[in-house]
Amino acid sequence: LALLLISCHSAPTRIFTLYAVAPAAPISRYTGPAIRVDAVHVPPALDRIEVVSDIAPGELKVSDLDYWSAPLGQVAKQALSADMVARLPSGRVIFPHLAKPDGALGISVDILDFGGSTNGAHLEASWIITPTNPDAVTRRGTGRFRGEPSGADATATVRALSTLLAQLADQIVAELSLEGNEP
């Protein structure tokens, strides 16, 4: 009986986090106010500690052994902040848990849809850039981002979402730079 119990071991639990992806373009020459990623909201179907992967249109797989290191919205906020640091000049990004000084911009992102399959990964998001100055203009944007085909396992999901968040960072930085670097 002891040998039977020893031979019946389960697969190890894996813990995942999202990570910054290096930019394809050089660092932006953005000279506007500092920015901070204030929030990243994820769809309720994905907002769980277990990693959720697409396996077919309208069908999700919740992993029994693969978990996020923290709530997905928080992990995504950290990764997006790191992506912004890699794309903007030094000192322009305020880390998520630091106080936002007067004049800084806040970015809130709402991920509307995310999935990955052998057909490719996709992310649809909306964001708002809010100044601390009530007289300044609030900016809004939306985007649909595509990535390389991925599998339905947790490692592929993490790689796809990290890459797509980097594309989102590219888009936000491009829009910040196009705005003439004005607050």
What's the gist of this structure?
By secondary structure, the protein is of the alpha/beta class. It contains 3 helices and 8 strands.
What keywords describe this structure?
183 residues, 3 helices, 5-stranded mixed sheet, elongated
Word description of this protein:
This protein has 3 helices and 8 strands, in the order αββββαββββα. With 183 residues, the protein is an alpha/beta fold. A hairpin with a 7-residue loop joins β7 and β8. The longest helix has 25 residues, at 154-178.
SSE layout and pairing:
Blueprint: H1 2-7, E1 14-16, E2 35-41, E3 50-56, E4 59-68, H2 72-87, E5 93-94, E6 105-115, E7 121-131, E8 139-147, H3 154-178
Parallel strand pairs: 1-4, 2-5, 2-6
Antiparallel strand pairs: 3-4, 6-7, 7-8
Helix pairs in contact: 2-3
- Main sheet attributes: strand count, strand direction, barrel closure: 5 strands, mixed
Residue windows where pLDDT falls under 50 for at least 5 positions? none
Beta-strand residue fraction = 25-35%
Mean of all residue-level pLDDT scores = 87
